């Protein structure tokens, strides 16, 4: 019978050879493969079965011999480690069949791949979308490999790395690590297994930043987790999302969309290693504007969000004052009611027009004057008027205002940058600032919402008050 069976014999232990492969080997007239792998199948060979070894890096010669023998009306099994279709002999056999225009029947039998064996030893690291990349540039240009690495890293794929290192390829793994660290958190779990399934087997779990390429050799499989991966009880796990679905059954559609948006934004941040309070404010700012420039221009004092939330919780912050009514409109009414906070804008106060006229100032400045008289210790949020922010700064310096905090996000071209610079010297007041010309009422409001919902930050579960 003219037939070639291409069989994956697993990563390197007899226990990991599938029954189908065992049966194929038992029926083979000839087994072709690299001699190291014969030890794993020799006990299944029928009497008289010939084993042909072509040596390392002789894949084409191995395939040619398989066809020559099969053409003698024999059944040939070509063995490949792991799965023959994953960096194995199966593609070459099919290509050679087409090249030779051969009528020999080809059958491919799957095997347990090295990354699957490594994954089982590490825990459950490949529970979600996965890609596999080989760092061998013998037949693939490095430029193409690097593009694939970047795509895997930015796409948040769990990534298995084959051929990470050899005597001649010492730098490629360092470059992969560098590329991943540009878009992934430094504490992303990484697991690696050397000689999976064999007597020399070693299993290790570390993080992306702590991974030492010098501890890796050509017999090692590396698995890099995604943004949801974690380590628990020494096991590396990438969740599929079943428990999240259970927890979120009571979540309204609007909140579900917002949560999905926040996860997307977080996965696309250039720098994920930032304090939780700053990150929570940043996610809100980007969600509101779809502007990732916020990563560059959002400034928060150290612990500002956390400090302001603590003031809300302990009752010392009871009022939010805004420069324009649009900011008040954007602050979540459910959050205000839940926490017992009042949001006010004095711009519509009937006294504003007279004060502005008498003192030759803007209406928003007059509104801040009235606000400070009534609530000198409020959280002040500015999303429109730089003159109002400048007025507050003057009142602070005169000792008339003692804000619990300041959100400085006025927008425009006149006095905008200067007003934000004027705020920074007040070191004792926690501040959140949108640097430069950008800002807006929507930003000021969403930063207020970030403070009011900070207890949802660790679970990345925004929108409870929608």
Helical stretch tally: 18
What portion of residues is helical? 25-40%
Sheet with most strands: strand arrangement:
14-19-18-17-15-16
Quaternary structure of the protein: single chain
Report the count of strand segments: 19
**How confident overall, as mean pLDDT?**
93
How far apart the termini lie comes to: 70 Å
**Strand residue percentage:** 15-25%
Structural class: alpha/beta
**Main beta-sheet annotation:** 6 strands, mixed
Low-confidence stretches: none
Radius of gyration: 32 Å
- The coarse overall form would be elongated
Defining traits:
about 475 residues; alpha/beta; six-stranded mixed β-sheet; five-stranded parallel β-sheet; 18 helices; about 40% helix; elongated
